[in-house]
Amino acid sequence: MSRPITEMLNESIAVLTSPSVATFERVERNGTKQDALQYVIAAAVVSAAFSAVIALIFAVVGNASMMSVIGALIRGLVIPVAGFYVFAYLVHLIGKQQGGTGTEDEVFYTIALISAPLLAFNSIIGSIPLLNCLALLFTFLIQIYMIYLTYLAVRASMNLESTPAIITTVVAWVVQFIVRIGISIILTVFGLAAS
């Protein structure tokens, strides 16, 4: 049976407000890969819905195509979930090669605890153009904080020392970034073809 979103949200608050390897280790076995995916999908749905509403407002006001709304919805769902899955999978794969002993469940779950709430937060801030511009420095600092949290999650979930955890995090992030760009290009090409 899957964990309630509220329990995962409480654990997210714990790791976001008291970041340490020990905090992640306390919660790493509380959820599964399936729980992690459900949590990230729930955040992506919130994110995509918000992006689609903003795109709809701009479509109505700016007389733009409804394809922009559909595109925002699809991009908001597909890219974050695919990016999360690729990243977590790579962390587990690369972490094993670095001598890590964590399970897929531990890796996916700990990374989901930071990814899901920050995904929803960043998408809400990023969807509103004026707010996005005003909060540019703040969102940049959040991204730096997320990198730090990810490093801690990788150390805890894969049971790695500092250097192998850094290598694992950086390589997984670079590959995930390339995959996200590829998905964005594919969705854009199909979006242009559809319109």
TrEMBL record:
It is found in: Membrane. The chain crosses the membrane at residues 36-61, 73-95, 107-128, 134-154, 166-193. It is a multi-pass membrane protein. This is Yip1 domain-containing protein. Residues 14-178 form the Yip1 domain. One of its GO terms (cellular component) is membrane. The keyword Membrane applies. Keywords: Membrane, Transmembrane, Transmembrane helix. The keyword Ribonucleoprotein does not apply. It holds the Pfam family Yip1. Coiled coil: none annotated.
